[in-house]
Amino acid sequence: MTDSTLQGASVLVVEDEPLLRKQVAAALEQHDADVTAVGTLDEARRMIQSLPFDFVLLDVNLPDGLGTDLLSENVFSPNTAVVVCTAEGGVQGAVEAIKNGAQDYLLKPVDPAVLPLVLHRARASRQTARLAEHERHDPAVTGERLFFGNALGPFRQQLDKIIAADERLGRDLPPVLLEGETGTGKTSIARWLHHHSPRAAGPLVEVNCPALPESLAESELFGHERGAFTDAKTARMGLFEAAKDGTLFLDELASLPLGLQAKVLKAIEDKRIRRLGGNREIDVDVRIIAASNRDLGQAVADGQFRDDLLHRLSLFRLVIPPLRERGQDILKLAEQLLAQLSRRHRVAAKPISAGGRARLLSHAWPGNVRELSHELERTIVFEEGDEWDFAALPGPAGTAANETATSGALNPNFDFPGEGFSLEATIDEFIRRAIDQAGGNVSAAARLLGVSRDYIRYRQKNRAD
Hints:
- By secondary structure, this protein is α/β, with parallel strands linked by helices.
- Helices cover 43% and strands 13% of the residues.
- The chain is built from 19 helices and 14 strands.
- It has helices at 18-29, 41-50, 69-72, 91-99, 115-137, 156-169, 186-195, 217-222, 239-242, 258-270, 296-301, 307-313, 329-345, 354-362, 368-382, 400-407, 423-437, 442-449, 453-464; strands at residues 10-14, 34-38, 55-59, 61-62, 65-66, 81-86, 104-107, 176-179, 204-208, 247-251, 272-274, 281-283, 287-292, 316-319.
- The longest helix is centred in the first third of the chain and has 23 residues, at 115-137.
- The radius of gyration is 29 Å and the shape is elongated.
- The termini are far apart.
């Protein structure tokens, strides 16, 4: 029986004892690994410089030097998992090798039966390192992540259907497509789906597709071999591989070029990828969740999205409504996010006041959940008192708070003209004057008007449109 970690994997065995070298190579080949076996440090250097390897089994004491010298020479690809082989008395040296970049060690004589387990563990270590690298370089996936928790609103039933199907299917899970306006919480829904799926123990790799440079997008997603392009000094694992046994979330997938969309479709259908500049196909066991703030049907009609990819993604298709259409769910969501943000900022939990609830319900929330989260965080940082009042938000028309805020600005002798006047134009004129008085500072203008900065931005954008 072959091991999936080793099947098709390229392995370099560096061992000076001919019999042991032959035994280890034979054991690996039984699992369909592609094995190269050498006996000296010099041969190992030449092999590493000329061929990409998924694994290296590295003996410490070789006729022409220490195998661990290769670690300090930094000759290994970031995707190569290195396992050091040492005699029982050399354990301390093996531990030092791990500190210098090896993933694990084996005691000699090597038991062929443990090879798959040790190499699987080493591969998981490299996968974790690639994921950590991605998160360091993508600020969108770093820091504490906010979840909807129980505030999933009217689409919770649809999510439960997806999870029920996932449990029936086991690990071979179909893609999910999330559609909705910017800021509606598609990323949080993707995280919820991952953490409630059979793949919850695996990694969740989030990819902000519009942030991928067009020239590097294929390399980021599928990886590359050494020499694939000018700066490819070493081979590199792609994000499909980094998401192995977990979920790959492709946010704003429609921003990818059509040619790359075709490769994503092939990866979904074949469950295999080929690195840029490579010939070997690599199995990728991932669940795909894709998201878009565009009407993908219209994008297909406009020639900007592949019809076949849309069909492949649409088995589970979930449209997330904007916050303004979710009624009382806004309050549930606000309470859930307030609890998480209060813990983050180490602020005591407090209830939302009656006025605060009215303001949350009456606000248009053009920025959806993202705007709500920012407003909640601003309130936690700046508001005092025993309740959250959200005083920076405009009160609903007719409330006492709104009347108090505006009564001083109204002329008591004002009469409406017989022909009427434009309330919308009047609001825009008030905003313009407030911005002028604030010297162009939108935040200061928002404070003068008693509204949020996002409200002013929303008005300006809609007026421009």
